[in-house]
C-alpha cells in the first residue's frame, strides 16, 4: 500500500510540469507502477514531449507499454497487444516441487 501511494504521489508530481526537462529516470519512475517492473528495469523509447503532455514507450522484461501523461496527475500505460500475445505463447516454465507417488 505504501509503495502504491509513493508511485501515485511521484507520478502526480512528475506530471504537474510535464515538460522536456524531465529525463529518462523520471519517466522510468512514473511508469514503474503501471508496468509492474522496478524503474531500473524499464527502458524508455519514443519519448515525445509536447506542451503539457507527453507520450513514450516503456519496455520491460520483453513487454512493451505505450504511456501517455497530460496535465496534472493523468498518466496511463497500456501494454502493446503484440508483446502480450508473445508472452502468452511463451509463458515462463514452472517447476514442480511435488514428489511423484511410488
**In which order are the strands of the major sheet placed?**
1-2-3-4
Give a short account of the largest sheet. 4 strands, antiparallel
- Percentage of helical residues? 25-40%
Structural class determined from secondary elements: alpha+beta
Oligomer: single chain
Q: Overall 3D geometry?
A: globular
Say how many strands there are.
4
How many separate domains make up the residues? 1
Uncertain residue segments: 1-16, 90-102
Average residue pLDDT: 73
Beta fraction: 25-35%
Give the CA-CA distance, first to last residue. Answer: 45 Å
Measured on Cα atoms, how large is the radius of gyration?
17 Å
Number of helices: 3
Order of helices and strands: HHEEEEH
Amino acid at each position: 500500500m505504501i509503495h502504491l501511494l509513493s508511485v501515485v504521489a511521484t507520478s502526480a508530481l512528475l506530471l504537474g510540469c510535464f515538460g522536456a526537462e524531465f529525463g529518462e529516470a523520471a519517466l522510468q519512475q512514473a511508469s514503474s507502477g503501471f508496468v509492474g517492473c522496478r524503474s531500473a528495469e524499464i527502458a524508455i523509447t519514443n519519448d515525445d514531449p509536447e506542451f503539457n503532455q507527453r507520450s513514450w514507450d516503456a519496455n520491460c522484461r520483453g513487454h512493451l507499454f505505450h504511456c501517455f501523461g497530460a496535465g496534472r496527475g493523468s498518466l496511463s500505460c497500456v501494454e502493446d497487444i503484440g508483446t502480450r500475445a508473445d508472452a502468452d505463447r511463451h509463458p515462463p516454465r514452472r517447476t514442480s516441487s511435488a514428489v511423484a507417488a511410488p
